[in-house]
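User: Quick one: structure for sequence A, then sequence B.

Assistant: Sequence A:
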Amino acid sequence: MNILYGVNATGNGHISRSRITISELKKRGHNVTVLFSGRKVENFFDLEEFQPYIIKKGFTFVFKKGKLNVLRTLLNIDLIQFVRDVFKIKKEYDVVVTDFEPISAYAARKLGIHCIGIGHQYSFLQKIPKSFKMKLASLFFLRFYTPINSTISSHFYHFNQNILPPFIENGLKNQDAEPTMKNTFLVYLAWEEQGQMISILNTITGNEFIYYSSVDKEVQIANVTLKPFSNKHFKEDLIACNGLLTNAGFQLPAEAIYLGKKILCKPLVGQPEQEHNAKILKRLQHATVCAEFTKEEIEMWIRNGKQKKELYNESIDLMVEMIENPKKDFRSRISKLWI
């Protein structure tokens, strides 16, 4: 099949899971063109294996100090360019897959091509526990942002719905050894104020922190090592570290849970998906949740935080089959993945 695969590049989680799925689709002989949007061109990294790919502006969510800035997000929207990008896509694809990427989804609607929504966000269209805010978001925003014909959704738990477990890339599997970097913690906080976070971490003596950020080369600031973004090196440090400080996304916490790492997470304020994820992670005892990253919260987590390892069953083969057969009923096979 000829597949257009849209990837929302606002966060690295969409890129990380798409990397796995796209690789498997190509192995099965499908022609995959990848469309990225939601990030400036200069901020992408490690895209070689996605070729051929296209980068468009799309929509970008703007956060400041760990909180969604609604006004700046709205002001950043360029609807004219968005419409132009949609109309540039031609009817040369058998199916469109969107990982919460709107240009590919609207192009599929315009061209009459079946569009599959793939990823964690689409679990909110099913009957799972949701706050009132998340119910509103799932009713309006999800359907409006990426119009779709069918979904392949994933979550930390199934909630007796047709939801896949998180899928984990091969490089993270069979990693049962004890952490090789004792008292060393991995930090991925793309939406927090970096300078403020480094100042807090510098006060936490006796521990080391590896902080991935948009630096050009590795920089040491007391007990904090700043590293440039790299999928390979990030995953190596995730395997070796003792725990993870992050926001309440989906893919990265799922990988940390699979590896048995303890997690301290802070949901982005005003982002319903992250607020929901934080509640579910706490309910399932997979993470410690905080409202703010403070010296006291981090030190308490280092001393008392617990990890709960979950070896999610392999779902990538079924996911690829679902893309190849978007109208087939896979409910019984999905349920078996949680046994």
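Sequence B:
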Amino acid sequence: MIIIDGRQTEMKLNSFANLEELLVKAMQEPCLENRIVTDVKVNKENFSEIYPHQAEDIDCHSIETVEIISMDIDDMVINIMEELNKVVRLMNSGSSQVATLFRQADDAEALELFQDLLDVTRNFLSMIGLLRSEYAIPQTEAFTENVEIISNLFGEMTEVLEHEDWVLLADLLEYEYLPATNEWLRILSEMTEKIKYSMGK
């Protein structure tokens, strides 16, 4: 049985040699047009590839059910924008906290939180990259400039970290990184409104 978004399809499991062949065919179904597959369940268990083309190694004779769950591209874009907003707020509050700790010479805790901040910044840059490559998002000049600013600051802060210049790191966080994250909150808010307007939401 092959189910797409809660509805049983007319496709038959025995028509396919392996799971990859099945999924490729399913993606051509009209019901998945303008949709993004978010989950695949094989025999009611979540499936995600551990290595490339793992689905090709799964024989359809060992499968009883395949369930494909998808999301409308428009909804996916809005979800990503909302997630980006949460990430930026974390970056914003985190940078203030870390800068304060460095100024108080609480280096151990500051460094621990700073590593978390670097991870959050990495996630942010990854999500921005996804947004640019996968979705036709209207990108303003401010959007492009701020991607560059955050990327450059990320590199600069990593370098300063290696030199253990905590005062300079606190300055970068407070006077450059924090204003950049504040600007991102404004940019993302404007972009989300434009996207929702264009979608009629």
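Strands lie at 2-4, 7-8, 35-42, 45-46, 66-72. The mean pLDDT is 87.

User: Thanks, that's what I needed.
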